[in-house]
Amino acid sequence: MTRLVIGLGNPGPEYAATRHNAGFMVVDLLADTLGAAYWKDEAGAKTAKVRFGDGDLVLAKPQAFMNVSGKSVKRLLARYAVPVEEVIVVHDDLDLPAGDVRAKKAGGHGGHNGLRSLHDAVGDAYLRVRVGIGRPPGRMDPADFVLEPLRGERLEQLREAVPTAAQVVVDVLERGVEAAMADHNG
Questions:
Q1: Which of 3, 66, 94, 99 is the most interior residue, by most CB within 10 Å?
Q2: 114 burial class (0-12, 13-18, 19+ CB within 10 angstroms)?
Q3: Among candidates 139, 72, 61, 130, which has minimal Cα distance to 98?
Q4: CA atoms of 93 and 112, how far apart (whole Å)
Q5: Which residues make Cβ contacts (< 8 Å) with residue 115, sequence separation at least 6?
Q6: The pTM of the whole model exceeds 0.85
Q7: Which residues lie closer than 8 Å to 39 by C-beta, 6 or more apart?
Q8: Per-residue pLDDT tens for 30-64?
Q9: At what angle do helices 22-34 and 152-175 cross, to 10 degrees?
């Protein structure tokens, strides 16, 4: 059986160290940890395949901007014949305090443009690993906040959440979303 983990983010070096690329950061760490040999271009995404348990695990980073990433995700689901209920999507979340990580089973998009694109393309039944980035200060536009290049302490805070999020993904894969929620959604 093939499983699919999709990290949401924006392509390009100018977005690499932004809150909106938390999903890419987690998928990159999973690729390193699980020994992915290489990334390839397919279905509008960078993908890496590794053995995991009794099957294959495909790690994916859609290469369209986040607000249109659903098209790539839809093509990946079709290519690998993975039901949407088995897909894990890793994304940043304004509604969680910075550094918090939570697993979630299906649900709404909460105004997140990447999730909105996925909902439009494949529905809302996928599993999620939410990486908290907190709310913007004062009257800062949330779009500016998520795309703000991070340095120093702010970047370090985001990077510290990445290994936890990667572990939550592994827990969902190995034990199911309910167990991961029980362990990590305290």
A1: 66
A2: buried
A3: 130
A4: 8
A5: 8, 89, 91, 108, 109
A6: yes
A7: 31, 46, 47, 48
A8: 999 999 989 999 999 999 999 998 889 999 999 99
A9: 60
The tokens of 153 are what? 């302490």
Helix (H) / strand (E) containing 88: strand 87-93
Tokens of 138: 């004062």
Give the residues across from 47 on adjacent strands: 40, 60
Q: Is 20 one of the catalytic residues?
A: yes
pLDDT in tens, 71-110: 999 999 999 999 999 999 999 998 889 889 999 887 877 7
Q: Residues 127-151: what's their mean pLDDT? A: 88
pLDDT of residue 90: 96
CB 72 within 8 Å of CB 63: yes
* Pairing of β 87-93 and β 55-62: unpaired
Tokens 């999730």 found at: 115
CA dist 98 and 56 (Å) reads 32
Selected from 3.40.50.460, 3.40.720.10, 3.40.50.1470, 2.40.128.130, the CATH number assigned to the domain covering 2-184 reads 3.40.50.1470
From the list 20, 91, 112, 184, the catalytic residue is 20
Query: Residue 110 in contact with residue 95, Cβ under 8 Å?
Result: yes
CA distance 23 to 18: 11
